[in-house]
Design goal:
The chain is α+β, with helices and mostly antiparallel strands. Among the domains are: about 120 residues, PAS domain (Beta-Lactamase, 2-Layer Sandwich); about 45 residues, no CATH class; about 200 residues, Heat Shock Protein 90. The protein contains 16 helices and 18 strands.
């Protein structure tokens, strides 16, 4: 266990932690207020953009109504009523948002109506909002009016929910007398309602319209307002034409955005609730707190390691010198730390290096020699395979199976010839396949629980390859796949050339297969301990797939090598990819001498 830190350690760690805590607190606060400010600004910006879009659409619609009114005024609706009526009917029929168009005199008598049905009495007409609002208006600079939503009673048996546009006009009657009149256009209220409802401001935000007198023209909660179940804060917007402000209403902070609709005195009001707009701030707050805790923990850990890094080297050097021994001394490089500690450690290293140099050279030489011997032995023959094969030969001889003995000995002899291959590393694919065929023949006679097929294209037989590539793969298939089957297994070897540059040798078995993790580590030297133990507990490692992979890539390059596909209880396929080079003469190492 480490000793208690001394005062210098405590000073360094405490200072680093305190500075880190201050920095974290400042950054967390800045992040919180920064995110809050940006979120509110974005909320206001998005709300304004939505209301501006709705205002533009609503203004365009009002402009189109005014264009229709100008067109209607150009008609000779006094002297040529039939033609004018047909034109008005064409407008009404072509636009689903227009319910009716009509002209009245100031007495309420109809001059021209787009509908064929008779109207209600003129006494009822003059009591209509759109009618008396124009009559009572004494201002010459404003002679048009948009009513609030209402049910139009102008035509019997036809009671649509409309907003009525009315305009004061002057016309000359059939006796040549100039008179005042009213142009009336009924607009389908559902179109304006849908235009407003299509804009969403959070889950409970909304838009509504008020006229120049502060009366509500449209509100999504209009029914509740009429019933006295909801009150709108119209006082706050009474004298505001354009503007944005935040005010608490019914215990909730509301962002109010107001814009005036072009060509009329309507004001479009958008209401967005800040608790909805900034609801993401709760997540941000939790994230900031979590990050602050993580950084605080990291600062403590960093403070410990930094101070330990400063003070520990001296203690480490002291401990090394106190327990100095030829066998246990482990210091091989200067101790990192202050300049003084570094200089002392360099002197110490020079001393122990003089003592250990000879011992280190001897150990290294022995390790290299042992490794070379093992690799040489493994590259030529697997002792277990030779022992088991000879044991099988003895057993067949005892059983008087002369033909089997001859077959196995001949196969073993040919197998060794390819392993030695007259000192050549490069042989033909045909000789490599013959080597594998002899190996499979020996193993089949030993285990008698599998069969094999070999498919080699004639034009690929004399293509060159480095020797002993396929046998380790086949060995792996037998000992890790076929051996554990209850039913007879099958190993298939196919040699093919998918293009002019490459040769693919595939070795497939219908064995027990492997899971994804085993397949992933199969071609890696660094494997988890449990996989290493599992492989060591099984026979038949042979040269090993890793060695085959490395030999191919050292000879041909990184683009060549092995690829493994496997599924549990389905089998395994190993693809060996080598370059397709010009054909060579066979060495005849797999045949008897003299043949």
């Amino acid at each position: 266990m480490k000793k208690e830190p001394k005062s210098i350690h405590r000073i360094f760690s405490t200072s680093i932690i305190a500075i880190s805590m201050i920095i974290i607190a400042v950054m967390s606060t800045a992040l919180y207020y920064g995110f809050s400010k940006v979120t509110r600004q974005n909320a206001q910006k998005n709300t304004k953009e939505i209301i501006t879009q709705v205002n533009y659409r609503l203004g365009s619609y009002i402009t189109s109504i005014l264009e229709i009114s100008n067109y209607a005024l150009d008609l000779d609706f006094v002297n040529d009523k039939q033609i004018s009526k047909e034109k008005l009917q064409t407008i009404v029929n072509s636009r689903h948002d227009i319910v009716s168009i009509a002209f009245f005199d100031f007495d309420g008598s109809p001059i021209l109506i787009s509908d064929d049905k008779p109207t209600i009495s003129k006494n009822e007409i003059i009591r209509q909002e759109w009618f008396y609002s124009i009559i009572s208006n004494k201002k010459d600079d404003y002679n048009m009016y948009f009513s609030s939503p209402h049910i139009q009673h102008l035509l019997p048996q036809k009671f649509p929910w409309v907003i009525t546009y009315s305009q004061k006009i002057t016309y000359t009657d059939d006796r040549g007398i100039t008179r005042d009149g009213i142009l009336m256009i009924d607009m389908n209220f559902s179109l304006i309602s849908e235009m407003i409802r299509s804009a969403t401001l959070g889950s409970s935000g909304y838009l509504y319209i008020v006229d120049d007198s502060g009366e509500i023209v449209y509100h999504p909660k209009q029914t509740l307002i009429y019933a006295g179940l909801f009150n709108e804060d119209t006082e706050s917007i009474e004298n505001v034409v354009f503007g944005t402000f935040v005010k608490k209403y019914n215990n909730r902070d509301r962002l109010t955005v107001i814009q005036t609709v072009n060509d009329c005195k309507w004001r479009l009001v958008g209401i967005a609730y800040l608790d909805e707009v900034t609801e993401g701030m709760t997540t941000i707050n939790l994230l900031v707190i979590l990050l602050s805790l993580i950084f605080a923990l990291l600062s403590i850990v960093i403070a410990w390691f930094v101070t330990n890094h400063i003070t520990y080297p001296i203690k480490q050097l002291e401990m090394e010198m106190e327990r100095f021994d030829i066998e246990t001394a482990k210091l091989s490089k200067p101790i990192e730390g202050s300049k003084e500690v570094y200089t002392l450690s360099v002197t110490y290293i020079k001393m122990i290096k003089r003592i250990r140099k000879l011992m280190g050279d001897i150990v290294t030489a022995q390790d290299l020699k042992r490794k070379s011997e093992l690799e040489a032995l493994e590259a030529k023959i697997n002792p277990h395979f030779l022992y088991n094969t000879l044991d099988s030969v003895v057993w067949m001889a005892e059983q008087d199976d002369t033909e089997g003995v001859i077959t196995m000995v001949q196969a073993l002899s040919k197998l060794f010839r390819v392993s030695i291959s007259k000192g050549h590393e490069i042989i033909t694919i045909n000789e490599e396949i013959e080597h594998v065929r002899n190996y499979l023949l020996i193993q089949k006679m030993r285990y008698q629980n599998f069969d094999f097929k070999i498919n080699l294209r004639e034009d690929l037989k004399n293509c060159p390859t480095i020797k002993l590539l396929v046998q380790p793969v086949v060995e792996n298939a037998i000992y890790h796949g076929i051996k554990y089957l209850v039913d007879p297994g099958l190993i298939t070897i196919d040699v093919d050339s998918p293009d002019e540059k490459n040769i693919i040798i595939s070795v497939s078995d219908n064995g027990v297969g492997m899971d994804e993790e085993t397949t992933e580590y199969l071609l890696k030297r660094d494997k988890p301990d449990y996989l290493i133990k599992d492989i060591e507990n099984k026979e038949g490692k042979g040269i090993g797939l890793v060695n085959v992979q490395e030999r191919i890539q050292l000879t041909y390059g990184k683009e060549y090598g092995l690829r493994v596909e496997s599924e549990l209880d389905e089998g395994t396929t190993v693809y060996i990819k080598i370059p397709k080079n010009d054909s060579i003469h066979p060495l005849k190492v797999a045949q008897k001498e003299g043949k």
